[in-house]
Amino acid sequence: MNPLLAEILSSPWLINTERSAAYASVLLSLIKGEQIFEGDSSLARERNRPYILAGSGNQNERFGFTDTNIPAGSVAVIPIRSEILKYDQPCGPRGTQSILSDVKSADQNPGIKSIVLVIDSPGGQVSGTDLLAEAIRNSTTPVVAFIDGLTASAAYWIISGASRIIASSNLDRIGSIGTMMMVEDLQPALEQLGVKFHEVYATLSVDKNADFNQVLDGKYDDYRKNVLDVINAKFLETIRSFRPSVNETALTGKMFFAPQAMELGLIDKIGSFEKAIETAFSLGNSPFEQAQTNESKTIQRMKFKDTWKAIQNFFKLDPSSLETQELTSDQVQQINDQLATVSARNEELETLLAGEKEAHAITLTELEKLRGEDAAGETIAAKEADKCPGEGEEATVYAHDRIADDFCSKQ
Q1: Which of 1, 274, 54, 235 is nearest to 146 (CA)?
Q2: d(Cα 354, Cα 358) in Å, to the nearest integer?
Q3: pLDDT for position 324
Q4: Beta 112-121 vs 387-389: how paired, if at all?
Q5: What is the C-alpha separation between 236 and 208, in angstroms, rounded?
Q6: How much of the chain is helix, strand and coil, in % rounded to 5?
Q7: Tens-digit pLDDT profile for residues 38-67
């Protein structure tokens, strides 16, 4: 089966229905096994190729991601155009896995101070979308998303964590924040051609394909609840988290032109591509944000170095030949076993410490109680120096008692 056809027919999508409906004829051709000729695809591939814009801002001064002479202070430009799929398509759009690799590569490159995503997409496949969105959100390098026409559904999920979102025109459309699945039931048509279908399940596989088979019977509730609602909940949770000021009315699947999208908190401004590049350079030059970025990268490098040193010491690795050394599966298992032992010991110590803290607290409570009782029953004890000879049966009296008696007898 054609890999694109398999993706279309087998998974939920985050896509604008206007675009998906336009593919009916393409889908029919794929089903029939017909060749789809789209002409020279070299231009499309070039439009989807990421590049590095030199720090001078001159758009004619570009570098590839693999170039070694990238100037300091450059901006990475990563296009996200057409339908979004997890994997690269032959002569088609690049998949989210490749774009994710571009984002991480740009984030780790010391010569790149900001990233610009250029988006013109109706959305696409669910799988891989959340991971790319998280990578953009967690990038220590500022990310500017530039909408170049359309950003719907999965495309908006991907860019929602960008530092800034800029639309190119008042006529750009943004939204379609929702989840759908379109099912083409081809079985009746194929049965007319003499095709017979037999589904045989293992004895214990009583729930296998149950939700989907109900969809084919026209019963959508279980699939909607168990699949689409789960995906959509994650989608909306991400948008609310990444864009806290977004209006709830923007989260029902509706599309908006750029001015209204800005009012609803979906985008930050409307401007040209040059404005997006200028914003990217500005974010990269911000002393505060640059300091945060450098500090974050430094901390990450320090953590990695400390971890690698620990691994070196554990296995007595020779630093001079590290490039030729790899950890074997046994060594990895040894590390995991050691970590498990340390973790178990830490839990044991934490339990003991918690017991000690509880006993200490009880002791302090009892001490305070005794202090209170002592204060309530406190008396003035007679001092030995206060004693003096008594008369009669009292062999000893105290001076303060005698003074008190003398005072009372004079009244």
Answers
A1: 274
A2: 6
A3: 47
A4: unpaired
A5: 28
A6: 50, 15, 35
A7: 544 556 666 788 999 886 556 667 888 888
Beta bridge partners of 387: 398
What's the pLDDT tens digit per position in 318-361?
555 554 455 666 766 777 777 778 778 888 888 888 888 888 88
Which residue, chain included where needed, has tokens 């279980």?
222
The answer to whether residues 254 and 175 touch, using CB atoms and an 8 Å cutoff, is yes
Nearest to 136 by CA among 110, 109, 164, 111: 164
Residue with tokens 């990038």: 139
Q: What is the dihedral of CA 69, 71, 72, 76, to 10 degrees?
A: -100
Residue 94 has pLDDT above 80, yes or no: yes
Has residue 380 got a pLDDT over 60? Answer: no
pLDDT of residue 279: 92
Q: Give the pair of three-digit tokens for residue 257.
A: 């032109």
Question: Are 156 and 124 in contact, with CB atoms under 8 Å apart?
Answer: no
E strand map for 18-142: 51-53, 62-63, 74-81, 112-121, 123-125
Instruction: Give every CB contact of residue 117 below 8 A, 6+ residues apart in sequence.
Output: 78, 79, 80, 136, 143, 144, 145, 146, 158, 159, 162
| Beta carbons of 215 and 183 less than 8 angstroms apart | yes
Nearest to 130 by CA among 98, 162, 96: 96
Query: How many Å separate Cα 67 from the centre of its chain?
Result: 29
Beta bridge partners of 123: 15
The predicted pLDDT at position 88 comes to 82
Other CB atoms within 10 A of residue 100 CB:
19
SS3 164: strand
**Closest C-alpha to 279, from 161, 141, 114:** 114
Would you say 85 and 137 are in contact if contact means Cβ atoms under 8 Å apart? no
Angle among Cα 111, 115, 117 to the nearest 5 degrees reads: 150
**Number of residues assigned to the chain:** 411
Please give the Cα distance from 250 to 244 (Å, whole number): 12
349-372 burial, b at 16+ Cβ within 10 Å, e below that, comes to eeeeeeeeeeeeeeeeeeeeeeee
